[in-house]
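User: I need a structural model of Protein dennd6a from Xenotaenia resolanae for a docking pre-check later this week. Nothing fancy, just the predicted structure tokens so I can convert them on my end. Input:
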Amino acid sequence: MALQGPEEVGEQVEEPEDLDDQDASSISPAEEITLPPGPGGDEEPEEAFLLPWDRFSSWLHCICVVGFDLELGQAVEVIYPHHSKLSEKEKTSICYLSFPDSNSGCLGDTQFCFRFRQGSNRKSSMGCFLENTDRDAPPCLKREQGHYYGYVYFRQVRDKSLKRGYFQKSLVLISKLPYVTFFHSLLKIMAPEYFEKQEPCLEAACNDIDRWPAPHPGRVLTLPIMGVVIKVRIPTCYDKPGTSQLVQSAQSDSLVSIVLPTIHEVDLFRCFYPVFFHIQMLWELVLLGEALVVMAPSPAESSETVLALVR
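Assistant: Understood. Predicted structure tokens for Protein dennd6a:
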């Protein structure tokens, strides 16, 4: 995994910007309706006029399933919701980046993330609304302009019925939000269910997410997903560093399955412990925007180290 200063976050390959797909649009193909209040709290006045799938779009652009074809190599098998738009270059980036670039042959489940360039300038049916939700967010948690994050749950298991001898598939969440811890936790719930029940599971998950309130900084949100309830708080730029504003209440948390104290932080000590004596040099390289290559025993450690370097 390569890093070019603070601009590149956890990406192995970055494609040049695609200027040929300017007509691609991610506006939800539905009429404006009034939706009932979401489960995360009182509804904002502007949220009453959101389009169908706008709540989903405030969290995710789409969900992709990437499999391995003996003739084609990696290929996007499913995009959900089906109306979501991805250019061919974006699909190519997702295909290459969602499979670990490793010859370790490790079996089982692996989670990691990457970032890739958005291939076209898409219009959004809720641009002004998203700007308002980003207004109080810390700089490190604002939506990426011109880039997407890909959060991956990769499964590789032996399967003698396949010619390759292995089952290899990735479930990938595509988002503008750098909520690393949150989306990895979400994948731990969604991916095992998907590998067991296949596409109907994705439809159910997307419908759940489309009922969530928007990720407003400063709010404590309860987010139901596939029978599990996650409680999170989106930080604000006014929070004191090193503090958590998420207060647990035995009464209100009786139905909450998972409480996440942070949505984005990685374990800095665990990432830098193997190179602790070089940490001053690493800081200088990142500060000066010098080229830096990160190699680690696993994709998870590699992507977390890159994120730790640019935080």
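Before docking, keep this in mind: The chain is about 25% helix and 20% strand.
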